[in-house]
Amino acid sequence: MKKIVSSHDVGLDDMEFLYDMLASRPECVKISSKAPMPTWDEHLTFWADRPYRYARVIKVGDKPAGYCYISRNDPPEIAVHLIPEHQRHGIGTRVFKVLLDMTEGKGVANISQRNEMARNFLKSLGFNQIQETYSHE
């Protein structure tokens, strides 16, 4: 059975869901394992500053399942984040294709090199790896 997927603009009512998603990320998907979890106030300030030119909460049925965005950068960063129960069902692929259409096929995706599932997903969509980031403590 195909899941009914919809979305809406990120709003104040979504802040708790987005914060919970951020807090529950497994270590392998974090781009920077050194970055501390933002406080609730920092989280609200971040979203109030409207950092993305496009940001939507993805819903399956009437429940939030993740979010996606297109940054204001050039080339734009594009991202889809889904809670685990909604991964590997084609939702991310459909949403990513919409985002790529919106950016005329151009964009970058920043992921952790430890996130093998995301690496394979992006390769399946035609993305090429362009860099690795190194850190010295």
What distinguishing features does this structure have?
4-stranded antiparallel β-sheet, 137 residues, Aminopeptidase, 28% helix, alpha+beta, globular, 20% strand, single chain
What does this structure look like?
- The protein is 28% helix and 20% strand.
- Strands 1-2-3-4 form a four-stranded antiparallel sheet, with helices on both faces.
- The chain has helices spanning 15-23, 40-48, 91-102, 116-124, and strands spanning 5-9, 52-60, 63-71, 78-82.
- It is α+β, with helices and mostly antiparallel strands and 137 residues long.
- A hairpin with a 6-residue loop joins strand 3 (63-71) and strand 4.
- It contains four helices and four strands; from the N terminus they run E-H-H-E-E-E-H-H.
- The protein has one domain: 3-Layer(aba) Sandwich (Aminopeptidase).
